[in-house]
Amino acid sequence: MHSFISNLTLRSSLLLALHIAASPLALAESANSDNSDTSFDPLDPVVVVATRAPEPLSKIGNSVTVLTQATIVDSQTVVISDLLAQTPGLNVARNGGIGGITSVFIRGAESGQTLVRIDGVSFDDPTHPDSGFDFANLYTGDITRIEILRGAHSALYGSQAIGGVIDISTAAPSKDLAGTYSAEGGSKDTWLTNAGMGGTVGDLGWRLSGQHFQTGGIPDFDKNFGGTTRDRSSNNSFSGKLSYALNTNWSVNFNGYYVRARSRFDGYDTPTGAFGNDLEFNTVMQAIGYAGLKGSSLNGQLHHQLSAQVTETDRESFDPMLTPINETYYGYGNNRRFEYQGNWDFNADNHLVFGVENARARLNTDSPAYDFGAPGLSRASAQINSGYGEFTSTLVKDLTVSLGARVDNHSAFGRHTTAEASAAYSLNQGNTILRSSFGQGFKAPSLYQLYSQYGNTALRPESSSNWDAGIEQHFWTARAWASATYFQRDSRNLIGFFSCSTPSPLCATEPFGYYANINGANVRGVELQTTLPLSEALTFNANYTYMTDLDRSAGASTYGLDLPRRPRQLANASLSWCATQRLTATAAIRQSGPAFDDAANTIKMGGYYVVDLRASYQLSPRWDVYGRVENSTDRQYEVAYLYGTLGRGFFVGTRYSL
């Protein structure tokens, strides 16, 4: 039976996915919708991430995917990055098992070029070398909605939005009293519990939630190369929301999000100096705070949002095998942001989003075990003042156009301006939608790249130009749909780390290496998606991405080669079966083409596919049980050279809602 599935059925499904590519994940709810709302249209959800204001997807010219609460729950996914890997154009690479450093590449952009927002707060991490967001410790928890915008969007979001934006929302109070509880356990000594409770009392709304996760893990050092030591990981996260209506037009809002995690990992600091089994571990604390005042004026036409936002990260790494100091790294970083955003609805067809921001980042970092008697502590800060605006108009019936621009003034490198434009045109009574967008992106050098012991204060910001164009077609009374999108991005002044094996003036003060603007890249590709209802009970979904992500570093030996960890082909497909009103089951397959792990393209990782099976059964309107088999064929593969990946795993759980 195992052979039959792996060699016939699953490979046939994969081939079908590659030719009919699709995704169920574009079907979404509006930002504040209730599933009981009979006016809700799942094929034309309201999204916010593209224009920073509610807008029907049919009027959005950008490429957007929405993951709703139903999608997140049905997927049974624990780690957000695993869920993102199921969407078009996104590739995920993790160093080992759960808890390992996790990078998400949107359309081949660097992982640090993805902007992550949680409950309206932009979360870049000053302790990370390129200030990118590490997805290792972001779990589904109380998250109810994810909007993914593919393509440069710096005109509205500023630095880091070269590849795109991932906007995440946690649950909000929706009725007098509501609560959820879930628990699951399974392979590799893995346990997960999650609980949330919230409600409304008059003008007051509140929500609290918490999650605990732990796993015995796998050897991060691939067991096929000799890995033997399982690397454990644990994660505790909490979130909360509080709102109070001051009157019919104004309210105050407070949000908080907190994560503390501990993970063991394998590294190079073994007695032999080679990569292998190790006892290293790190601890990470991440926190978000938000305080905002929301209201409206001009008879509800002008909406205001004034907010203060803070993020903090405390990261430490230890190697018990080192003496007398075993702390190999610590970094403490924080961001403070003050922002005003206005949304002016002139009428049903024309609105303007505008705003101003002041953001300040700070970093304290050191590698005590490697200071060799000389203090290596780096303390740095930088500030960005910004102004932005975007006008959206339905110029003629069914044609919506958006134009936006932003000016950022950075304390280290000065002023930078970005612009964007998009258009969406509905034809055939809305069954055909044409989309196109152009966007400029930029990313300010991180504090680490500027001021660390490897820093270079002469760095320039990374920049890019991005455009895409696509068509979406609905048929069979709109129950089925398909889309195709072509995209292209040219990136300049990309920042890379260079060792001092080759002489450079910077090596006189930074003998171990330095950062410099040398790299360039060019990306071209196509994304295909479809949803096909095969019957009342069966639905087929798939998506397929093909792209070339090439090094365009002038004069470099790597010119024309593939960028590391960017497979040219990605595909997902699933077949969902609603056996009864209570019983559902899904078979899903994820495929990746070959990729290289190094810039010189000398280390090649083979392509692979992974098959997951899952089912759930509703015992009562409030209680259900579920189970899944991850990597059911126990496929051996790698997404990062020398690092292991999860084999077959069995998990069962239960969910209860109040």
Provide an overview of this structure.
- There is one protein chain.
- By secondary structure, the protein is mainly β.
- It has one domain (2-657): TonB-dependent receptor, beta-barrel domain (Maltoporin, Chain A).
- The chain is built from five helices and 33 strands.
- The strands form five sheets. It has a 22-stranded antiparallel β-barrel. Strands 3-8-9-6-7 form a five-stranded mixed sheet. It has a two-stranded antiparallel sheet with strand order 1-2.
- Strand 23 (462-475) and strand 24 form a beta hairpin.
SSE layout:
Layout: H1 2-20, E1 46-47, E2 55-56, E3 63-67, H2 69-75, H3 80-84, E4 90-94, E5 102-106, E6 114-118, E7 121-122, E8 143-150, H4 154-157, E9 164-170, E10 177-186, E11 190-201, E12 204-215, E13 233-245, E14 251-267, E15 276-297, E16 302-318, E17 327-347, E18 350-366, E19 378-396, E20 399-410, E21 414-427, E22 432-443, H5 447-451, E23 462-475, E24 480-498, E25 514-533, E26 538-551, E27 569-578, E28 583-592, E29 595-596, E30 604-605, E31 608-620, E32 623-630, E33 649-657
Parallel strand pairs: 6-9
Antiparallel strand pairs: 1-2, 3-8, 4-5, 6-7, 8-9, 10-11, 10-33, 11-12, 12-13, 13-14, 14-15, 15-16, 16-17, 17-18, 18-19, 19-20, 20-21, 21-22, 22-23, 23-24, 24-25, 25-26, 26-27, 27-28, 28-31, 29-30, 31-32, 32-33
Instruction: Please summarize the sheet with the most strands.
Output: 22 strands, antiparallel, barrel
Strand composition percent? over 45%
Shape: globular
Please report the first level of CATH classification, the CATH class.
Mainly Beta
| Structure summary, number of beta strands | 33
State the domain count: 1
What is the radius of gyration? 24 Å
Distance between the termini: 41 Å
Instruction: Give the averaged pLDDT, no decimals.
Output: 89
SS content category: mainly beta
Low-confidence stretches: 1-40
